[in-house]
Design brief:
The protein is an alpha/beta fold and 236 residues long. The protein contains 9 helices and 5 strands, in the order βαβαβααβαβαααα. It has a 5-stranded parallel beta sheet, sandwiched between helices. Strand 2, helix 2 and strand 3 form a beta-alpha-beta unit. Helix 1 packs parallel to helix 2, helix 4 packs across helix 5 and helix 6 packs across helix 9. The longest helix has 18 residues. The radius of gyration is 17 Å and the shape is globular.
Length: 236
């Protein structure tokens, strides 16, 4: 039996990953992390969507100790969420949570180990990423190697969106006839607004720009997605 664990936030990217994983694995389990994030609605959305889409199980793990160490506008109410294009002096947006994906992927791998799952799936993306160093392909592969060595089991870290832009991510949801669900019921907005969001933060900007591009020429975007999926299948 093929099993996978999806790192699941209830946002556009992780929901699209879950939708795809459910067609590729016999059992799909979700894990969501409560790290003291700014909006508890993120966890509520993840719980609702995991049940609605048919995940085998959904685990919410308390990792609020991260909040004590990682200072970010997503973990501190007194730090304003930046609008699109705003960065800190070090070149990173204030929404970057240091160590978040290091912790999440490591814990998801432990969960996968216990479930005898072969893969951990995460929606990180280098093509459209918001300046986060822990969304890079190089990082994910390096951590995957270290974790597999540490637990003496080859658990794959899969990143199905890594080389897709946001328009192609919308096309992937549409490929599985779930575009409306992803658009209206996921929570990507840094200001905690479900669906199309606030329209001002970086997450909303990337999401809206991608949707507009997809809607402008769905055929061309879907064709580009198909080529990337075929290329990825050939490599694997």
């Amino acid at each position: 039996m093929k099993r996978a664990v999806v790192v699941f936030s209830g946002g556009q990217d992780s929901t699209t990953c879950l939708i795809q994983a459910l067609t590729q694995y016999d059992e799909v389990h979700c894990i969501t992390f409560d790290y003291g994030q700014r909006h508890v609605a993120e966890i509520e959305v993840a719980e609702t969507l995991s049940k609605q889409l048919g995940a085998k199980s959904h685990k919410v793990l308390d990792v609020t100790m991260l909040n004590e160490l990682a200072v970010s506008s997503l973990t501190r109410d007194n730090i304003p969420v930046p609008q699109y294009g705003e960065t800190e002096a070090n070149g990173l947006p204030s929404t970057f949570v240091p160590g978040r994906n290091i912790l999440f992927l490591t814990l998801a791998a432990i969960f996968a180990y216990q479930l005898q799952a072969e893969a951990v799936i995460t929606g990180v993306c280098e093509t459209d990423f918001s300046g986060y160093p822990d969304c890079r392909d190089e990082f994910v592969k390096a951590l995957n190697h270290a974790v597999s060595l540490g637990i003496a089991r080859d658990i794959r870290f899969e990143t199905p969106l890594m080389w897709l832009n946001k328009a192609e991510t919308w096309a992937l949801a549409d490929r599985y006839q779930k575009l409306d669900l992803v658009r209206h019921h996921t929570l990507t907005c840094y200001n905690g607004i479900i669906g199309d969001g606030c329209g001002e933060c970086a997450a909303c900007h990337l999401r809206a720009k991608g949707l507009e591009e997809f809607q402008r020429d769905a055929v061309a975007v879907s064709a580009a997605l198909g080529l990337k999926l075929d290329r990825a299948a050939a490599i694997s």
